[in-house]
Amino acid sequence: MSEPRPRVAVTGIGVVAPNGSSTETFWKSTREGISVLDRVTREGCEHLPLRVAGQVRDFDPAAAIEERFLVQTDRFTHFAMAAADLALDDARLPRSVTDEVPFSVGVVTAAGSGGGEFGQRELQQLWGKGSRFVGPYQSIAWFYAASTGQISIRRGFKGPCSVVAADEAGGLDALAHAARAVRRGTDVIVAGATEAPIAPYSMVCQLGYEELSTVDDPTCAYRPFTSAACGFVPAEGGAMVVVEAESTARERGAPVRAHLAGHAATFTGASRWEESREGLAQAVRGALAEAGCAPEEIDVVFADALGVPEADRAEALAIADALGAHGTRVPVTAPKTGIGRGYCAAPLMDAAAAVLSMEHGLIPPTPNVFDICHDLDLVTGRARTAEVRTALVLSRGLMGSNSALVLRHGATGASS
Length: 416
Known about the structure:
This protein has 416 residues and is α/β, with parallel strands linked by helices. The chain has 14 helices and 15 strands.
């Protein structure tokens, strides 16, 4: 008879988001349903047809990160390093742990495109002044793996490190990679995703997405599951979490905030939203199976919520397909409609919100959304009080990836 798998716990959460540059402010704004979507104000973006986004406005990288790291990294890595610090502090992991057992801590992140702002600045130097004015960090700062590398270097983590390139759904896949590393024997993994797509070059690249909303009214630009759905608006920021074996966490007295109970992923092709119904439903079934979770045990679904009519319909049907009759009764929420859809970072911020939802017994609302046109119990208007023991987080990518993650409350004794 095989031994039970070690239970994988989330012990720390760090969030840098458009609605708050700390986990506490993020949750306060999320539970209150505050929308911070607004007109894009980033320099050089004023003339572009993408008018609305979720910008992180109260983040000072110089106050959070040493100068020697700032000059060699892009904004998306600034978010990642700051969020990692918050998560490690939350998990009560002292910096001395690196000196004692450096190979016991690893890092895994996901990113959609890397550091466009840094790359654009250096290329402008090349075009305008010549090659002598291009800094040496141009070769690495833009790279989508930069956050993993810089977090591990800065904190001295020498355990298994990796980056997931799996479309927006890669955010959830990064958590699955972290869980597998812990089950293989690594003590701690710092995992997550951050993005910084609000820069001229990055925004021009995004204009190629047919699913992108170009509506200039922040209250109407991102309204999934409604008859007025017109696409999504992007966001910057993200979240990092500390993942470790539950036994390790309890030995050092760290609170277990949640369990990574089950995950599965599928692929159905770029912009094939009707086909994503089957792929997403299959991912949900796989995640439930790995978690040993019955459909009726799901207390809330954090939806992908693309905001494209065909994609929204496919997601609503996928939830019903995978959860059966429970799929039309279970509360569904999409707090990202108040901050924007941050590509790989979006499902990480959803996962952070799901853990906080379980801890506080509150399901946050879906800002700016009222007239639901799908058979979903979408939470709108204000937060809903509920006993939340198990949460399902969904994510799909524009290139066709689908991912589902089951989270259990920290006190829940289900298998992970």
